[in-house]
């Protein structure tokens, strides 16, 4: 095992968006907000270059506040989808280019087989040249299942897009895993200084996840200020497995 590149990300080489400015681009998010947290800067920069950016959100996010009476699952799903569209509009993505699969979060791994056909059809239709996926070894099982879903769907198609993976929960040192020595992983930073303030504005759209908007569920999820700092840097970290 080797140490995660997130242990000391400041030493990773920095790259320009022009190196990955292809079109169309697909951003795949396990939950509504992962796309903005992990790739918000890349999305904004790609759109500034007029790249065709599509976003596929796999789960409905309704387990973030499972006990809320104010926001039962249907209302919470609608809220989280509206937050996603608001955030992505700030980043320059047309709402028509955002697709919600609506799988139940917390158990994507048990549903992904049934979603392979629809994801394959979606991928075949847009034929992305680059796909941004959650890091395949992310500590969250939904993130790992999302990665597996897209890789499995791609296996049914004659497509060979470049796969770029983004970390989310590996930013938490308590959850972070090491890299396996059997895989060659290239890690790098994308310079997003020009759009980092815009990314912060987009993250702020996720009020259900970063504020006490939903205040009637003591077990409800909320991203901590410490965790959010990892996504407010003037660069984003990406990994590519050869």
UniProtKB/TrEMBL annotation:
A GO term, aspect molecular function: hydrolase activity, acting on carbon-nitrogen (but not peptide) bonds, in linear amides
Domain of life: Bacteria
InterPro entries for this protein: GlcNAc_PI_deacetylase-related, LmbE-like_dom_sf
PANTHER family given in the database record: BLR3841 PROTEIN, N-ACETYLGLUCOSAMINYL-PHOSPHATIDYLINOSITOL DE-N-ACETYLASE-RELATED
Protein name: PIG-L family deacetylase
